[in-house]
Amino acid sequence: MSASNVPADVRRFLLAVIESVPHLEALLLLHSDPLASWSSDAMAARLYIDESSASRLLADLQGHHLARHEAGDWRFDARDAEIARIVDRLAGVYARHVVEVAELIHSTSDRKAQRFADAFRWRKET
Q1: Model confidence at 108, in pLDDT bands (50, 70, 90)?
Q2: For the segment 34-75, what is each residue's pLDDT rounded down to a tens digit?
Q3: How far apart are CA 126 and CA 63, in angstroms?
Q4: pLDDT band with cut points at 50, 70 and 90 for residue 107
Q5: The whole model's pTM is what?
Q6: Beta strand ranges found along the chain (DSSP E)
Q7: CA distance 26 to 16
Q8: Domains with residue ranges and CATH for the chain
Q9: Long-range interactions of 42-45: CB distance < 8 A, separation 24+
C-alpha cells in the first residue's frame, strides 16, 4: 500500500479503533448524516449482518466515543473535533481506496488472530 493512499493520522485511527470492515462501514453510515438516527435492525440490514452483530459493533463505536445511543437509535457522535476531522478524511480515503483500507483493517485482524492462536500453540520440548 502506498503511504500516500492512507494518511498517517487516518492509518493510526484505523489501527487503533476500527476492528472490522463492518465497524468502518457502520461508522461511515452514521457519519454520512450526523442528524439521522439508525436502529440496530436498520444498520444490520444495510450491512448485511444480523441484528446482534450490528448492536455489538455500534456499542463498540460508542465505546470509542464515535456513536451515541438514545431512545433506541444510534447517531454519529465524535466528541473530539480532531477525531471528527479524521473521520471526515477517512470517508474520502475509503471512497477512493477501498481495497487498501480493507487490507489494512484485515491485516490488523489477522495479526491479532495469529497472536491469539500462538498463545495456545503446543511446543515440543526437546
Answers
A1: low
A2: 999 999 999 999 999 999 999 999 999 999 999 999 999 999
A3: 46
A4: confident
A5: 0.83
A6: 67-70, 73-76
A7: 16
A8: 8-117 (1.10.10.10)
A9: 43/74
List C-alpha distances in Å: 49 to 22, 44, 45, 75, 110.
8, 5, 7, 19, 20
Alpha-carbon gap, residue 123 to 43, rounded angstroms: 44
Angle at 72 between CA 67 and CA 74, to 5 degrees: 20
What residues does 75 pair with on adjacent strands? Answer: 68
Distance in Å from the first CA to the final CA of the chain: 41
Locate 5 and state its grid cell: 493512499
What residue has cell string 449482518?
49
Angle at 65 between CA 63 and CA 69, to 5 degrees: 75
| 78 contacts 42 by C-beta, under 8 angstroms | no
